[in-house]
Design a protein that fits this description.
Organism: Myodes glareolus (Bank vole)
InterPro entries: GHMP_kinase_N_dom, GHMP_knse_ATP-bd_CS, Mev_gal_kin, Ribosomal_Su5_D2-typ_SF, Ribsml_uS5_D2-typ_fold_subgr
Family: Belongs to the GHMP kinase family. Mevalonate kinase subfamily.
Number of helices: 6
Order of helices and strands: EHHHHHHEE
Strand content: 5-15%
Radius of gyration: 16 Å
CATH architecture: 2-Layer Sandwich
Shape: globular
GO molecular function: ATP binding; mevalonate kinase activity
Helix content: 40-55%
CATH topology: Ribosomal Protein S5, domain 2
Enzyme class: transferase
Length: about 160
């Protein structure tokens, strides 16, 4: 059973420092501002083990409308985290290391999901963890909210729609 929220959430002090670095307004409520803040937090946190921070060109494009309840922030976090973890060689590159399979192994997906949850924490404060799990594994999930606000993923759901 996978439990999210194992690590400490980004502190308000860390987020305020990142807002200053990015010249973001103090309230930072717009989707673009929150996306920049999540990127900076994830980039600096994931790439901290590198001798020098990698130079990256990041292009973000989506057809998911922000704020419509479709998990666009989770999709953003998952894609960003997967790219950063791959660039920092924290996970395998499925197109390079796994040949024609083109899929991350489960342990890499666990890492992507964990870090994407941290991105969701920056954007939403206290997310459920469902959106990033769906975006990571590409399937519906069943979850329980346990004491201490841990989210436990019981497993994937298979939906069958018939006539």
């Amino acid at each position: 059973m996978y439990q999210q929220g194992d690590g400490p959430a980004p502190t308000p002090e860390q987020l305020e420092k990142l807002k200053k670095v990015a010249s973001l307004p103090g309230d930072c409520v717009g989707t673009e501002g929150l996306a920049v803040l999540a990127f900076l937090y994830l980039y600096l946190t994931i790439c901290r083990k590198q001798r020098t921070l990698p130079s990256l060109d990041i292009v973000v494009w989506s057809e998911l409308p922000p704020g419509a309840g479709l998990g666009s922030s989770a999709a953003y976090s998952v894609c960003l985290v997967a790219a950063l973890l791959t660039a920092c060689e924290e996970i395998t590159n499925p197109l390079k290391d796994r040949g024609a399979v083109g899929r991350w192994p489960d342990e890499d997906l666990e890492s992507i999901n964990k870090w994407a949850y941290e991105g969701e924490r920056v954007i939403h404060g206290n997310p459920s963890g469902v959106d990033n799990a769906v975006s990571t594994w590409g399937t519906s999930v069943c979850f329980l909210i346990l004491p201490a606000r841990l989210v436990a993923f019981v497993g994937a759901l298979t939906l069958s729609l018939g006539q």
